[in-house]
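Translate structure to sequence.
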């Protein structure tokens, strides 16, 4: 998933927050789930206390960061094909407010994520299962009600 044109306004706060790129004391390391191509390119990404690709200005990988990282604050459960959000992410209130509008950064982020997930359901379903298991372990997920989710077929 690539950066959302004009979407920096919502996500620019990520560089100062960096919550998702740190592990709280007392928790074990987080092995970021990688697609096959990301694994070939990066090998692995393990966050023991802080992501090794994190700088004071945010992710040094930019548009090439792993899809699991780009997906945040969303999580996708391939068992029931439902989406959740990490309620501890400070962006969530603004994200929820804007994600149904395809013109907002949140709306563009959601649609790009949904399109990539549709592709991964075919090409790498194991990635989606593993990523959701890790998200469920590390984040406080709250399901997005189905009736709030946009239908990509109408776009």
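Result:
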């Amino acid at each position: 998933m690539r950066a959302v044109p004009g979407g920096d306004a919502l996500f620019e706060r990520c560089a100062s927050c960096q919550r998702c790129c740190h592990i709280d004391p007392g928790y074990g390391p987080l092995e970021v789930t990688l697609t096959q191509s990301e694994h070939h390119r990066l090998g692995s990404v393990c966050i023991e206390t802080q992501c090794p690709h994190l700088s004071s200005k945010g992710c040094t990988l930019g548009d090439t960061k792993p899809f699991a990282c780009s997906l945040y604050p969303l999580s996708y459960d391939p068992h029931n094909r439902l989406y959740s959000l990490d309620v501890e992410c400070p962006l969530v209130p603004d994200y929820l407010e804007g994600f149904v509008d395809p013109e907002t950064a949140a709306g563009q982020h959601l649609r790009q994520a949904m399109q990539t997930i549709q592709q991964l359901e075919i090409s790498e379903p194991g990635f989606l299962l593993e990523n959701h298991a890790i998200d469920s372990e590390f984040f406080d997920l709250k399901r997005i009600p189905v009736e709030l989710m946009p239908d990509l077929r109408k776009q």
